[in-house]
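Protocol step 4 of 6.
Sequence for Lipocalin-like domain-containing protein (Winogradskyella damuponensis) entered exactly as in the expression construct, tag removed. Do not edit the line below.
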Amino acid sequence: MLLTLSCNSDDDTQQNPVPTLHATWSLVNVTGGLAGVNDDFESGIITWHFNNEPSEITVTNNDTSNAIHSGYPSGTYSYEVVTTPNDTTVVIENTDLRIISLTINQLILDEGMVSDGFQYTFNR
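Step 5 output, structure tokens:
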């Protein structure tokens, strides 16, 4: 009897990519603000592309709905990532957005309750 096993050299390697901002993210939900906004957006209508070199975000906002707030208007914005022992913040043009969650497929940024800010949820 002949037994053939198929082995691949990458069978033992871990395929767990590290989550990173450097990508194109689709804004899918905005919540918060004084008006109590909770707006959903179709994936691809509003995108934020984080570039590492230079540290810029290119926003493409093609939202034509009557949403109260759909994030930043289309344009290019400078940003920096600030990490402290307590959290990591993305600073976009002097606005602090705390990273609530960053996974391979989801990013949640929060302006904070103190400023009655917005929370932005993105998918890849």
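Step 6, annotate. The longest strand covers residues 24-32.
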